[in-house]
Amino acid sequence: MMDSIASASVFAAFTVALLTAAIAALSDFRGMKIANALPLTITAAFAAAWLIDLAVLSEQEVFGAWWSAPLAGFLMLVLGFLLFSAGVIGGGDAKLVPALALWTGLGGLPVFLLYMSLAGALLAVLALVGRGSKAAKKLAGLCGEKSWPAVLAEGKSALPYGIAIFAGALGAFLHTGIAAAVFPALH
């Protein structure tokens, strides 16, 4: 009985994290911003799921070794801080990556970074093609004056990297088995 309640709680936390990450990606597209509450929500959902996995579920079936997820999050927080300080990424991106890295753990981190990089490269190609284009101007009218298409329509170079971060996390969740651990029907 306790395992089923614990599993349902981890499932709920994972669902909250995944939906919140999707909202962060959409927010970045629509306004080139990721509100602080979004990575914080993902981190809080992780903390709840991690504690349940650690305390209730047998053999830490979702996250593996207890130190893997916190270490992955910490490493990405340090890297994010350095990249933000250098002006390479925005503050929202610097907070969203470690929040989602908590969910991948060290084992899933390379896959997360690979998928995120591939999605980021695709965004960069779209930005190069779309910058100053008529299509960007038309999309800007539909999406709003602060949206990514509006930024591109003005001829500026910017990427809503929250989209790439979400794609990387989604790819890592599906590829590494965390999704299967949380959603047993995927086995």
Compact summary:
This protein has helices spanning 2-31, 37-55, 68-85, 91-130, 134-143, 148-153, 161-176, 178-182. The protein has 187 residues and is an all-alpha fold.
Molecular structure report:
The chain has one domain (2-186). The protein contains 8 helices and no strands. The chain has helices at 2-31, 37-55, 68-85, 91-130, 134-143, 148-153, 161-176, 178-182. Helix 1 packs antiparallel against helix 7 (161-176) and helix 3 crosses helix 4 (91-130). The longest helix has 40 residues, at 91-130.
Topology:
Layout: H1 2-31, H2 37-55, H3 68-85, H4 91-130, H5 134-143, H6 148-153, H7 161-176, H8 178-182
Helix pairs in contact: 1-2, 1-7, 2-4, 3-4, 4-7
Global Rg? 18 Å
Please tally the helical runs, counting DSSP H or I stretches of 4 or more residues. Answer: 8
Unreliably modeled segments: none
Mean pLDDT score: 90
Gross geometry: elongated
Kindly give the count of domains. Answer: 1
How many strands, which pairing sense, and closed or not: the largest β-sheet? none
The total beta strand count reads 0
Distance between the termini: 21 Å
- In terms of DSSP E residues, the strand content is under 5%
Order of helices and strands: HHHHHHHH
Secondary structural class: mainly alpha
Please estimate the helix content: over 70%
